[in-house]
Give the backbone structure.
Amino acid sequence: MARLVIVSNRVQIPHEKNPRAGGLAVALGSGLVPGTMWFGWSGKRGHVEEGAKPALHEAQGVTYATIDLTEREYDDFYVGFSNGALWPLLHFRMGLFEFKREEEEGYAAVNNRFAESLLPLLKDDDLVWVHDYHLFPLGAALRAHGAGHRIGFFLHIPFVPPAMLAIMPRAREFIAGICAYDVVGFHTEDHKKAFLECVHVFLGVSADKDGNFVFEGRRVQVVVDPIGIDAEEFAAAAARSVRGTKVKRMRESLFERKLVIGADRLDYSKGLPQRFRAFARLLDRFPAHRRHVLMMQVAATSREDVDQYKQLRRDLDRLVGDINGRFSEFDWTPIRYMTRAMNRTTLAGFYRMAQIGLVTPLRDGMNLVAKEFVAAQSSADPGVLILSQFAGAAHELGEALLVNPFDADGVAEAIDQALNMELGERKERWHALRDKVWAGTPERFTETFLAALRPA
Ligand code: ADQ
Protein backbone atom coordinates (compact mmCIF):
# COMPACT_ATOMS: atom_id res chain seq x y z
CA MET A 1 0.00 0.00 0.00
CA ALA A 2 1.18 3.53 -0.74
CA ARG A 3 2.86 5.35 2.13
CA LEU A 4 1.10 8.33 3.66
CA VAL A 5 3.16 11.49 4.10
CA ILE A 6 1.54 14.11 6.32
CA VAL A 7 2.81 17.67 6.13
CA SER A 8 1.86 20.36 8.61
CA ASN A 9 3.49 23.52 9.86
CA ARG A 10 4.38 22.12 13.24
CA VAL A 11 5.26 18.48 13.89
CA GLN A 12 4.45 17.08 17.31
CA ILE A 13 6.97 14.37 18.19
CA PRO A 14 5.49 12.09 20.90
CA HIS A 15 8.36 12.44 23.39
CA GLU A 16 8.14 16.26 23.37
CA LYS A 17 7.59 17.76 26.77
CA ASN A 18 4.65 20.13 27.24
CA PRO A 19 2.54 19.16 24.24
CA ARG A 20 0.76 22.27 23.07
CA ALA A 21 -2.97 22.83 23.21
CA GLY A 22 -4.33 22.81 19.71
CA GLY A 23 -6.77 20.94 17.57
CA LEU A 24 -4.46 19.88 14.77
CA ALA A 25 -1.89 18.22 17.03
CA VAL A 26 -4.63 16.38 18.91
CA ALA A 27 -6.46 15.27 15.78
CA LEU A 28 -3.45 14.11 13.79
CA GLY A 29 -1.73 12.55 16.78
CA SER A 30 -4.48 10.01 17.28
CA GLY A 31 -4.84 9.23 13.56
CA LEU A 32 -1.19 8.35 12.83
CA VAL A 33 -0.56 4.74 11.82
CA PRO A 34 2.84 2.97 11.66
CA GLY A 35 4.56 3.49 8.32
CA THR A 36 3.46 7.11 8.05
CA MET A 37 5.91 9.98 7.67
CA TRP A 38 5.14 13.36 9.23
CA PHE A 39 7.06 16.33 7.86
CA GLY A 40 7.16 19.93 9.08
CA TRP A 41 8.77 22.54 11.29
CA SER A 42 10.56 21.38 14.45
CA GLY A 43 9.45 24.44 16.42
CA LYS A 44 13.13 25.49 16.67
CA ARG A 45 14.44 28.70 15.20
CA GLY A 46 17.89 30.12 14.69
CA HIS A 47 20.69 29.67 12.20
CA VAL A 48 19.88 27.30 9.31
CA GLU A 49 22.72 25.97 7.10
CA GLU A 50 22.29 26.36 3.36
CA GLY A 51 20.92 23.06 2.02
CA ALA A 52 20.38 21.63 5.55
CA LYS A 53 18.67 18.22 5.45
CA PRO A 54 15.61 17.44 7.61
CA ALA A 55 16.27 15.81 10.99
CA LEU A 56 14.76 12.32 11.14
CA HIS A 57 13.25 10.73 14.21
CA GLU A 58 11.45 7.37 14.53
CA ALA A 59 8.77 6.64 17.14
CA GLN A 60 6.20 3.84 17.16
CA GLY A 61 6.75 3.11 13.49
CA VAL A 62 6.20 6.72 12.44
CA THR A 63 9.01 8.76 10.87
CA TYR A 64 9.14 12.39 11.91
CA ALA A 65 11.11 14.64 9.56
CA THR A 66 11.63 18.21 10.70
CA ILE A 67 13.36 21.37 9.57
CA ASP A 68 14.18 24.50 11.56
CA LEU A 69 13.24 28.07 10.64
CA THR A 70 15.41 31.16 10.78
CA GLU A 71 14.21 34.06 12.94
CA ARG A 72 13.37 36.00 9.81
CA GLU A 73 11.35 33.10 8.37
CA TYR A 74 9.52 32.72 11.67
CA ASP A 75 8.63 36.43 11.68
CA ASP A 76 7.49 36.64 8.07
CA PHE A 77 6.00 33.21 7.47
CA TYR A 78 4.55 32.27 10.86
CA VAL A 79 3.93 35.44 12.87
CA GLY A 80 3.37 37.66 9.85
CA PHE A 81 1.55 36.19 6.89
CA SER A 82 0.11 33.02 8.48
CA ASN A 83 -1.11 34.52 11.74
CA GLY A 84 -1.32 38.23 11.01
CA ALA A 85 -2.98 37.99 7.59
CA LEU A 86 -4.46 34.56 6.76
CA TRP A 87 -5.78 33.63 10.20
CA PRO A 88 -7.80 36.82 10.77
CA LEU A 89 -8.99 36.99 7.18
CA LEU A 90 -10.24 33.40 7.09
CA HIS A 91 -11.96 33.95 10.45
CA PHE A 92 -13.91 36.86 8.93
CA ARG A 93 -11.92 39.49 10.86
CA MET A 94 -11.09 41.90 8.09
CA GLY A 95 -10.28 44.66 10.60
CA LEU A 96 -7.40 42.58 12.00
CA PHE A 97 -6.00 41.62 8.59
CA GLU A 98 -2.45 43.00 8.28
CA PHE A 99 -0.88 42.56 4.90
CA LYS A 100 2.80 43.20 4.22
CA ARG A 101 4.30 42.26 0.91
CA GLU A 102 7.62 41.12 2.40
CA GLU A 103 5.71 38.76 4.70
CA GLU A 104 3.77 37.33 1.79
CA GLU A 105 7.11 36.74 0.04
CA GLY A 106 8.55 35.16 3.20
CA TYR A 107 5.52 32.89 3.36
CA ALA A 108 6.03 31.77 -0.24
CA ALA A 109 9.76 31.27 0.39
CA VAL A 110 9.20 29.01 3.42
CA ASN A 111 6.66 26.97 1.46
CA ASN A 112 9.29 26.63 -1.23
CA ARG A 113 11.89 25.49 1.28
CA PHE A 114 9.41 22.94 2.66
CA ALA A 115 8.99 21.63 -0.90
CA GLU A 116 12.76 21.44 -1.55
CA SER A 117 13.39 19.67 1.76
CA LEU A 118 10.51 17.25 1.40
CA LEU A 119 10.94 16.19 -2.21
CA PRO A 120 14.14 14.10 -1.74
CA LEU A 121 12.35 12.13 1.02
CA LEU A 122 9.40 11.17 -1.18
CA LYS A 123 8.94 7.80 -2.86
CA ASP A 124 7.19 7.72 -6.21
CA ASP A 125 3.86 6.32 -5.02
CA ASP A 126 3.59 8.27 -1.74
CA LEU A 127 0.30 9.99 -0.97
CA VAL A 128 1.04 13.49 0.29
CA TRP A 129 -1.47 15.12 2.64
CA VAL A 130 -0.82 18.77 3.47
CA HIS A 131 -2.56 20.44 6.41
CA ASP A 132 -3.75 23.92 7.09
CA TYR A 133 -3.36 27.57 6.21
CA HIS A 134 0.39 27.85 6.73
CA LEU A 135 0.90 25.66 3.69
CA PHE A 136 -1.63 26.72 1.05
CA PRO A 137 1.06 27.12 -1.68
CA LEU A 138 3.02 23.96 -0.82
CA GLY A 139 1.25 21.85 -3.44
CA ALA A 140 2.12 24.34 -6.18
CA ALA A 141 5.71 24.54 -4.89
CA LEU A 142 6.04 20.74 -4.98
CA ARG A 143 4.65 20.66 -8.52
CA ALA A 144 7.10 23.40 -9.55
CA HIS A 145 9.90 21.09 -8.38
CA GLY A 146 8.48 18.26 -10.45
CA ALA A 147 6.39 16.29 -7.96
CA GLY A 148 3.88 14.14 -9.83
CA HIS A 149 2.38 12.65 -6.67
CA ARG A 150 -1.21 12.67 -5.59
CA ILE A 151 -1.24 15.65 -3.22
CA GLY A 152 -4.17 16.63 -1.02
CA PHE A 153 -4.81 19.63 1.21
CA PHE A 154 -7.07 19.93 4.24
CA LEU A 155 -8.03 23.29 5.70
CA HIS A 156 -8.74 23.17 9.44
CA ILE A 157 -10.15 26.70 9.62
CA PRO A 158 -13.04 28.36 7.77
CA PHE A 159 -12.93 29.76 4.25
CA VAL A 160 -14.37 33.14 3.24
CA PRO A 161 -16.60 34.15 0.33
CA PRO A 162 -15.08 36.06 -2.63
CA ALA A 163 -16.07 39.56 -1.47
CA MET A 164 -13.94 39.03 1.63
CA LEU A 165 -11.06 37.24 -0.04
CA ALA A 166 -10.81 40.19 -2.40
CA ILE A 167 -9.02 42.26 0.27
CA MET A 168 -6.03 39.97 -0.20
CA PRO A 169 -3.71 41.36 -2.86
CA ARG A 170 -3.17 38.72 -5.55
CA ALA A 171 -6.24 36.80 -4.44
CA ARG A 172 -6.43 35.23 -7.88
CA GLU A 173 -2.91 33.78 -7.63
CA PHE A 174 -3.70 32.60 -4.11
CA ILE A 175 -6.74 30.64 -5.30
CA ALA A 176 -4.95 29.37 -8.40
CA GLY A 177 -2.15 28.04 -6.18
CA ILE A 178 -4.60 25.94 -4.18
CA CYS A 179 -5.73 24.32 -7.43
CA ALA A 180 -2.36 22.53 -7.68
CA TYR A 181 -3.78 19.95 -5.24
CA ASP A 182 -5.71 16.90 -6.41
CA VAL A 183 -8.05 16.99 -3.41
CA VAL A 184 -9.01 19.94 -1.21
CA GLY A 185 -10.93 19.22 2.00
CA PHE A 186 -13.00 21.30 4.43
CA HIS A 187 -14.91 20.62 7.65
CA THR A 188 -18.29 21.88 6.41
CA GLU A 189 -20.41 22.47 3.32
CA ASP A 190 -20.25 26.23 4.03
CA HIS A 191 -16.47 26.34 3.78
CA LYS A 192 -16.53 24.25 0.62
CA LYS A 193 -19.17 26.48 -0.93
CA ALA A 194 -17.18 29.65 -0.12
CA PHE A 195 -14.06 28.15 -1.71
CA LEU A 196 -15.90 27.07 -4.86
CA GLU A 197 -17.40 30.56 -5.15
CA CYS A 198 -13.86 31.98 -5.00
CA VAL A 199 -12.77 29.53 -7.70
CA HIS A 200 -15.70 30.72 -9.80
CA VAL A 201 -15.17 34.46 -9.22
CA PHE A 202 -11.36 34.60 -9.38
CA LEU A 203 -10.64 31.87 -11.93
CA GLY A 204 -13.89 31.79 -13.90
CA VAL A 205 -14.20 28.03 -13.37
CA SER A 206 -17.41 26.30 -12.27
CA ALA A 207 -17.51 23.03 -10.34
CA ASP A 208 -19.92 20.19 -11.05
CA LYS A 209 -22.58 19.27 -8.49
CA ASP A 210 -20.11 17.10 -6.53
CA GLY A 211 -17.53 19.87 -6.24
CA ASN A 212 -15.12 18.69 -8.95
CA PHE A 213 -13.60 21.07 -11.46
CA VAL A 214 -10.73 21.26 -13.90
CA PHE A 215 -8.19 24.09 -13.75
CA GLU A 216 -5.20 24.29 -16.07
CA GLY A 217 -5.60 20.66 -17.04
CA ARG A 218 -5.76 19.33 -13.47
CA ARG A 219 -8.90 17.81 -12.03
CA VAL A 220 -9.49 19.09 -8.50
CA GLN A 221 -11.90 17.35 -6.15
CA VAL A 222 -13.32 19.35 -3.23
CA VAL A 223 -14.59 17.29 -0.31
CA VAL A 224 -16.31 17.85 3.03
CA ASP A 225 -14.75 15.78 5.79
CA PRO A 226 -15.62 16.86 9.34
CA ILE A 227 -12.85 16.03 11.81
CA GLY A 228 -13.69 14.00 14.92
CA ILE A 229 -12.20 12.85 18.18
CA ASP A 230 -11.45 9.51 19.81
CA ALA A 231 -14.59 9.77 21.96
CA GLU A 232 -14.11 6.38 23.59
CA GLU A 233 -10.66 7.30 24.84
CA PHE A 234 -11.78 10.76 26.00
CA ALA A 235 -14.81 9.34 27.84
CA ALA A 236 -12.57 6.83 29.61
CA ALA A 237 -10.17 9.61 30.62
CA ALA A 238 -13.09 11.63 32.00
CA ALA A 239 -14.45 8.69 33.97
CA ARG A 240 -10.98 8.02 35.41
CA SER A 241 -10.35 11.63 36.19
CA VAL A 242 -13.54 12.19 38.22
CA ARG A 243 -12.23 9.64 40.72
CA GLY A 244 -8.90 11.47 41.05
CA THR A 245 -7.68 14.05 43.54
CA LYS A 246 -7.83 17.09 41.25
CA VAL A 247 -11.53 16.67 40.55
CA LYS A 248 -12.11 16.00 44.24
CA ARG A 249 -10.35 19.25 45.13
CA MET A 250 -12.31 21.06 42.46
CA ARG A 251 -15.59 19.68 43.76
CA GLU A 252 -14.76 20.71 47.31
CA SER A 253 -13.89 24.20 46.15
CA LEU A 254 -17.30 24.62 44.53
CA PHE A 255 -19.41 24.11 47.68
CA GLU A 256 -22.29 22.62 45.62
CA ARG A 257 -22.24 25.51 43.16
CA LYS A 258 -22.84 24.78 39.51
CA LEU A 259 -19.91 24.95 37.14
CA VAL A 260 -19.85 26.49 33.67
CA ILE A 261 -16.64 25.53 31.89
CA GLY A 262 -14.76 26.93 28.89
CA ALA A 263 -11.39 25.74 27.51
CA ASP A 264 -9.75 27.27 24.48
CA ARG A 265 -6.52 28.50 23.10
CA LEU A 266 -6.24 32.18 24.01
CA ASP A 267 -7.31 33.36 20.57
CA TYR A 268 -9.61 36.17 19.43
CA SER A 269 -11.54 33.74 17.23
CA LYS A 270 -12.76 31.95 20.37
CA GLY A 271 -14.91 34.89 21.52
CA LEU A 272 -13.62 35.06 25.09
CA PRO A 273 -14.44 38.74 25.84
CA GLN A 274 -17.94 38.20 24.45
CA ARG A 275 -18.27 35.03 26.58
CA PHE A 276 -17.28 36.82 29.78
CA ARG A 277 -19.66 39.67 29.02
CA ALA A 278 -22.47 37.20 28.41
CA PHE A 279 -21.76 35.58 31.78
CA ALA A 280 -21.89 39.01 33.43
CA ARG A 281 -25.17 39.61 31.62
CA LEU A 282 -26.53 36.40 33.17
CA LEU A 283 -25.64 37.65 36.64
CA ASP A 284 -27.24 41.00 35.86
CA ARG A 285 -30.48 39.73 34.41
CA PHE A 286 -30.94 36.56 36.43
CA PRO A 287 -29.65 37.54 39.90
CA ALA A 288 -31.03 34.33 41.43
CA HIS A 289 -27.99 32.54 39.95
CA ARG A 290 -25.52 34.74 41.82
CA ARG A 291 -23.52 32.75 44.38
CA HIS A 292 -24.95 29.49 42.92
CA VAL A 293 -22.91 29.27 39.75
CA LEU A 294 -19.39 30.02 38.67
CA MET A 295 -17.58 30.03 35.38
CA MET A 296 -14.14 28.57 34.91
CA GLN A 297 -12.23 29.52 31.77
CA VAL A 298 -8.97 27.77 30.97
CA ALA A 299 -7.26 29.70 28.18
CA ALA A 300 -3.98 28.22 26.95
CA THR A 301 -1.70 31.03 25.78
CA SER A 302 -0.91 30.79 22.12
CA ARG A 303 1.00 32.77 19.44
CA GLU A 304 2.42 35.12 22.04
CA ASP A 305 4.65 36.84 19.49
CA VAL A 306 1.65 38.12 17.53
CA ASP A 307 0.56 41.64 18.58
CA GLN A 308 -3.19 41.00 18.50
CA TYR A 309 -2.74 38.13 20.97
CA LYS A 310 -0.80 40.31 23.42
CA GLN A 311 -3.58 42.88 23.24
CA LEU A 312 -6.28 40.25 23.75
CA ARG A 313 -4.53 38.98 26.84
CA ARG A 314 -4.43 42.47 28.36
CA ASP A 315 -8.10 43.04 27.48
CA LEU A 316 -9.15 39.79 29.10
CA ASP A 317 -7.18 40.46 32.29
CA ARG A 318 -8.99 43.74 32.67
CA LEU A 319 -12.41 42.41 31.76
CA VAL A 320 -12.26 39.51 34.21
CA GLY A 321 -11.02 41.90 36.90
CA ASP A 322 -13.93 44.25 36.19
CA ILE A 323 -16.55 41.52 36.31
CA ASN A 324 -15.15 39.85 39.41
CA GLY A 325 -14.75 43.22 41.11
CA ARG A 326 -18.33 44.08 40.37
CA PHE A 327 -20.09 40.84 41.33
CA SER A 328 -17.82 39.03 43.83
CA GLU A 329 -18.91 38.53 47.38
CA PHE A 330 -16.62 37.68 50.28
CA ASP A 331 -17.17 33.95 49.75
CA TRP A 332 -17.85 33.78 45.99
CA THR A 333 -16.00 34.88 42.87
CA PRO A 334 -17.98 34.45 39.64
CA ILE A 335 -15.11 33.83 37.19
CA ARG A 336 -12.02 31.66 37.58
CA TYR A 337 -9.64 32.43 34.79
CA MET A 338 -6.40 30.62 34.03
CA THR A 339 -4.06 31.40 31.16
CA ARG A 340 -2.39 28.06 30.75
CA ALA A 341 -2.74 24.65 29.17
CA MET A 342 -4.22 21.99 31.41
CA ASN A 343 -3.53 18.27 31.41
CA ARG A 344 -6.01 16.59 29.04
CA THR A 345 -7.22 13.99 31.54
CA THR A 346 -7.80 16.59 34.24
CA LEU A 347 -9.67 18.74 31.76
CA ALA A 348 -11.82 15.74 30.78
CA GLY A 349 -12.74 15.24 34.45
CA PHE A 350 -13.66 18.91 34.85
CA TYR A 351 -15.87 18.70 31.75
CA ARG A 352 -17.63 15.72 33.25
CA MET A 353 -18.40 17.43 36.51
CA ALA A 354 -19.50 20.69 34.85
CA GLN A 355 -23.20 21.46 34.30
CA ILE A 356 -22.48 23.53 31.20
CA GLY A 357 -19.82 23.55 28.48
CA LEU A 358 -19.65 27.05 27.02
CA VAL A 359 -18.16 26.89 23.52
CA THR A 360 -18.81 30.21 21.84
CA PRO A 361 -16.24 31.01 19.13
CA LEU A 362 -17.02 33.91 16.81
CA ARG A 363 -15.86 31.63 13.96
CA ASP A 364 -14.24 28.22 14.08
CA GLY A 365 -13.36 25.61 11.48
CA MET A 366 -14.74 22.81 13.62
CA ASN A 367 -14.02 23.13 17.39
CA LEU A 368 -13.00 19.92 19.06
CA VAL A 369 -13.70 21.16 22.60
CA ALA A 370 -17.42 20.89 21.81
CA LYS A 371 -17.01 17.22 20.89
CA GLU A 372 -14.77 16.53 23.87
CA PHE A 373 -17.32 18.05 26.24
CA VAL A 374 -20.01 15.72 24.87
CA ALA A 375 -17.71 12.70 25.10
CA ALA A 376 -16.84 13.46 28.73
CA GLN A 377 -20.42 13.50 30.10
CA SER A 378 -21.93 10.73 32.19
CA SER A 379 -25.10 9.20 30.76
CA ALA A 380 -26.78 9.36 34.18
CA ASP A 381 -26.42 13.11 34.60
CA PRO A 382 -25.14 14.79 31.44
CA GLY A 383 -24.24 18.47 31.27
CA VAL A 384 -25.51 20.86 28.60
CA LEU A 385 -23.43 22.03 25.65
CA ILE A 386 -23.93 25.67 24.63
CA LEU A 387 -22.42 26.06 21.18
CA SER A 388 -21.84 28.95 18.81
CA GLN A 389 -23.75 28.71 15.56
CA PHE A 390 -20.51 29.87 13.86
CA ALA A 391 -18.43 26.84 14.89
CA GLY A 392 -18.16 24.15 12.23
CA ALA A 393 -19.29 21.72 14.94
CA ALA A 394 -22.74 23.37 14.96
CA HIS A 395 -23.42 21.72 11.58
CA GLU A 396 -23.29 18.35 13.28
CA LEU A 397 -24.27 19.09 16.88
CA GLY A 398 -27.71 20.61 16.39
CA GLU A 399 -29.03 19.24 19.71
CA ALA A 400 -26.74 21.57 21.65
CA LEU A 401 -28.19 24.95 22.65
CA LEU A 402 -27.04 26.93 19.62
CA VAL A 403 -26.29 30.60 20.23
CA ASN A 404 -25.06 33.69 18.43
CA PRO A 405 -21.92 34.61 20.42
CA PHE A 406 -22.28 38.29 19.50
CA ASP A 407 -25.61 38.43 21.35
CA ALA A 408 -24.78 38.64 25.07
CA ASP A 409 -28.44 38.50 26.06
CA GLY A 410 -29.04 35.43 23.92
CA VAL A 411 -26.06 33.62 25.45
CA ALA A 412 -27.13 34.66 28.95
CA GLU A 413 -30.61 33.27 28.28
CA ALA A 414 -29.12 30.00 27.03
CA ILE A 415 -27.03 29.67 30.20
CA ASP A 416 -30.15 30.32 32.28
CA GLN A 417 -32.07 27.73 30.25
CA ALA A 418 -29.28 25.19 30.69
CA LEU A 419 -29.02 25.80 34.44
CA ASN A 420 -32.76 25.13 34.75
CA MET A 421 -32.94 22.21 32.29
CA GLU A 422 -34.64 19.04 33.59
CA LEU A 423 -32.70 15.79 33.60
CA GLY A 424 -35.03 14.25 30.96
CA GLU A 425 -34.29 16.93 28.39
CA ARG A 426 -30.58 16.91 29.18
CA LYS A 427 -30.45 13.17 28.58
CA GLU A 428 -32.42 13.38 25.37
CA ARG A 429 -30.18 16.06 23.91
CA TRP A 430 -27.01 14.34 25.08
CA HIS A 431 -27.94 10.94 23.62
CA ALA A 432 -28.47 12.51 20.21
CA LEU A 433 -25.13 14.37 20.45
CA ARG A 434 -23.35 11.30 21.76
CA ASP A 435 -24.27 9.20 18.73
CA LYS A 436 -22.82 11.81 16.38
CA VAL A 437 -19.63 12.36 18.36
CA TRP A 438 -18.96 8.62 18.65
CA ALA A 439 -19.50 8.11 14.92
CA GLY A 440 -16.92 10.73 13.86
CA THR A 441 -13.64 9.05 14.75
CA PRO A 442 -10.19 10.31 13.66
CA GLU A 443 -9.89 7.09 11.63
CA ARG A 444 -13.04 7.96 9.72
CA PHE A 445 -11.72 11.46 9.06
CA THR A 446 -8.45 10.07 7.66
CA GLU A 447 -10.15 7.30 5.68
CA THR A 448 -12.65 9.66 4.05
CA PHE A 449 -9.89 11.97 2.89
CA LEU A 450 -7.58 9.20 1.71
CA ALA A 451 -10.40 7.51 -0.19
CA ALA A 452 -10.57 10.66 -2.31
CA LEU A 453 -6.78 11.05 -2.52
CA ARG A 454 -5.87 7.50 -3.59
CA PRO A 455 -5.50 7.10 -7.34
CA ALA A 456 -8.72 5.84 -8.95
P1 ADQ B 1 -7.94 24.97 17.49
O1 ADQ B 1 -8.23 26.38 17.10
O2 ADQ B 1 -6.74 24.77 18.30
O3 ADQ B 1 -7.89 24.01 16.22
P2 ADQ B 1 -10.01 23.19 18.79
O4 ADQ B 1 -10.56 22.39 17.69
O5 ADQ B 1 -11.00 23.59 19.79
O6 ADQ B 1 -9.29 24.52 18.31
O7 ADQ B 1 -8.90 22.31 19.50
C1 ADQ B 1 -8.28 22.70 20.66
C2 ADQ B 1 -7.66 21.48 21.35
O8 ADQ B 1 -6.80 21.94 22.39
C3 ADQ B 1 -8.69 20.59 21.99
O9 ADQ B 1 -8.30 19.26 21.91
C4 ADQ B 1 -8.71 21.07 23.44
O10 ADQ B 1 -9.03 20.10 24.40
C5 ADQ B 1 -7.30 21.52 23.65
N1 ADQ B 1 -7.28 22.66 24.58
C6 ADQ B 1 -7.95 23.82 24.46
N2 ADQ B 1 -7.71 24.61 25.51
C7 ADQ B 1 -6.90 23.93 26.32
C8 ADQ B 1 -6.29 24.22 27.57
N3 ADQ B 1 -6.47 25.38 28.18
N4 ADQ B 1 -5.50 23.28 28.10
C9 ADQ B 1 -5.30 22.11 27.46
N5 ADQ B 1 -5.84 21.78 26.29
C10 ADQ B 1 -6.62 22.68 25.72
C11 ADQ B 1 -7.98 24.18 14.80
C12 ADQ B 1 -9.24 24.89 14.32
C13 ADQ B 1 -10.47 24.18 14.84
C14 ADQ B 1 -10.45 22.71 14.42
C15 ADQ B 1 -9.11 22.07 14.75
C16 ADQ B 1 -9.00 20.67 14.16
O11 ADQ B 1 -9.24 26.26 14.71
O12 ADQ B 1 -11.66 24.79 14.36
O13 ADQ B 1 -11.47 22.01 15.13
O14 ADQ B 1 -8.02 22.83 14.27
O15 ADQ B 1 -9.29 20.68 12.80
Summary: The first helix runs from residue 23 to 31. The chain has a mean pLDDT of 95. Residues 21-24, 26-27, 156-157, 227, 263-265, 298-300, 341-342, 347, 364-369, 372 surround adenosine-5'-diphosphate-glucose (CB under 6 Å).
